[in-house]
Fold this protein.
Amino acid sequence: MNFDHIGLLGIGSYVPERVMTNADWSELVDTTDEWIIERTGIRERRYSSDDQTTTDFGEYAGKAALADAGLEAVDIDELIIATDTPEMFFPDSASFIQHRLGMGEIPAYDLAGSGCAGFIQALDVARSRAACGDKKVLVMGIELASKFFDWEDRNTCILFGDGAGAAVVGPVEADAAANHPSILSLKTGTDGSRADILSRIAGGTRMPFSMDVAKKGLHKLTRMDGREIFKEAVKHMCAASTEVMEMAGVSSEEVKLFVPHQANMRIIHSVAKHLGAPEEKVFINVDRYGNTGSASVPIALCEARDMGVVESGDLVLCTAFGAGFHWGAALLRL
Ligand code: ACO
């Protein structure tokens, strides 16, 4: 299938107002600003207010992407929401967001459980759906992690932030110079043998919700082998990035900006080093937002564009890795 005429028509993002600094965390758990900065590079992150939900975040980011594309909600043919922090267990968040945005009675569905790789996976699906029907697909990564992590577990709580990012994927007007927006190449992958390394174990069929689950807090993010994730994240983001550059016949020198998943400054630096990408070509905002899961790549992409770091026609390489393990990379021409 020819994907050359499929590109990003618009992007948008949202981060909530409430700022939680490392100093704030050090008053709640046994940690310090120095430890967090040294091990993760995170200085602060944003959290939703008590009354905000996944649908609210989807509304803000979705409207921003639609405005950027010059489109109305009724122009969209399909909606895909990547999230591990849904509005409720069922129905899916896409149902609520489709209604909130005032979209037509289009196919709308969640892509859940792929952790921080969710947006790239959703982009992969959206690209195919757009290409086979000349459709405009609204894709979002949304996380309100603050509602699901354990506020007493210093190993995990300091890492995550809330946010949402969105993109409209669809057919573009091809120009003679082949300089039109395009998803030049895209690669996703999964290694399910590592599924237990990062998980929220209770609430599903393996361990249905119960009073015991609630007492032990097992419905929260409880399992994370940080060191193993670190190694696997670097390995897979590097391999996927190399593969998409090879698929498109593009060298790392030709890439204007690398936008890796914002999990941890040390992971980002390792990926950049392996790819031979100089510091100034790697976008970083993990210091301000922490790890916003599936929202991290689209938030970073929006910021880079809004700050003027990249502009139309530039090649941008996005890559992500998350629970599952799932990973992916996408080479975009803006
Ligand atoms: N403050 C102070 N000490 C802490 C904290 C904290 N917030 N958290 C853990 N520690 C302690 C540990 O308890 C441990 O103490 P111990 O030696 O007495 O047992 C000590 O610090 C060192 O722990 P390490 O595991 O060696 O620390 P490491 O250098 O590996 O850093 C970290 C931990 C930051 C979690 C790192 O492994 C990492 O970032 N891994 C990736 C995890 C990740 O990104 N998860 C998000 C989802 S997946 C994704 O987005 C890719």
About this structure: Residues 31, 35-36, 39-40, 115-116, 154-155, 158-159, 198, 224, 226-227, 229-230, 233, 263-264, 291, 321-322 surround acetyl coenzyme *A (CB under 6 Å). The longest strand covers residues 6-14.
